[in-house]
Amino acid sequence: xxxxxxxxxxxxxALPPQPATAKARECEYSDTEVSGLKLLINRQGRKFFYxxxxxxxxxxxxxxxxxxxLDVSEARLLxxxxxxxxxxxxxxxxxxxxxxxxxxxxxxxxxxxHAYASKRSANSDDSKFKTHLFDMFGIRLLASITRxxxxxxxxxxxSRRAPATANRHLALLKRCxxxxxxWGYMDSNPATGIRMHTENNQSQRxxxxxxxxxxxxxxxxxxxxxxxxxxxxxxxxxxxxxxALQARWEDIDHERLLWSxxxxxxxxxxxxxxxxxxxxxxxxxxxxxxxxxxFPGSKPGKPLSNARKCFQRALKAAGLAHLxxxxxxxxxxxxxxxxxxxxxxxxxxxxxxxxxxxQRYAHLASDNLRKATARxxxxxxxxx
Length: 384
Known about the structure:
The protein has 384 residues and is α+β, with helices and mostly antiparallel strands. The protein is 45% helix and 11% strand. The radius of gyration is 26 Å and the shape is elongated. InterPro entries: CB (IPR044068), DNA_brk_join_enz (IPR011010), Integrase-like_cat_sf (IPR013762), Integrase_catalytic (IPR002104), Integrase_DNA-bd_sf (IPR038488), Integrase_DNA_bind_dom (IPR025166), Integrase_recombinase_N (IPR010998), Phage_int_M (IPR053876).
């Protein structure tokens, strides 16, 4: 909740960083002089001016600038200018100025239509813009964004997100600016030359057999049985979360115990082999047939959007920690390998397009390889 104060240099300089123990990453203050003018302070003590407003029945916000780069009087003048635009029915985030196109206008009018027509991950791109990038670059002229600003954004993002997440944002910006050059909206890419952060993707959490059994037992008594069944199916098949949540009854072949995934991360169709246990989980669901989803959501005709809350409740009840839903996929692979499956078999069970990805589980196969070596030794050594 915003705290109401009269902005001044003396007052703002004295404001402390957001406590590290607070649930929210930022603390918000509202100016008593200009309606909607906000100051946000993060845990590192950085301070930002924002304008929050309502347009066309929707709550919106836009970043005005960093405190220090903008002083209080400049922030107020900029906020008042935008409020004047709002009074004329104009959303200040959607203005194309005489000197060029804004970042937001380019994304909304050009990049996103192209992405939705050509990328399966367009929804993810859209979310990155609305949640992060529009706040940072939305009202800026496309051609005025500098390499230094993008570098600063990339560096600051890892203070609250994983390096891999920051890298996906940088890759998205590079792609957008390349398309802007291709389509004639700018001459050079300001994201060129910015290096990706080092990612550590080798850290994986696997459930032991005992932990998997504890999780299964808790899921059987979970209040949301639709979400619990989705989690069970992920554990039993190793499919990705979205593959499970988007599954339809028409994709299930009960006779051949096969589940067809029409479109996977690799962009190709694949089939998942269903065990009798997996089939029993499906049989407990309400099978309405046709094009209905296995795991329907609260909105008619829509699938379950996320099983995270159910998963977190189950982890707490089972006494498990440091586990993501995606780790169920790792658990499936580790249990399969530790019970005799080869890396080749796991590659096809998980639907990896290349065996390079499957090599992350190679260390788990050492016992199987040792047994195979012992069998060869027993065959070639004569028995007296």
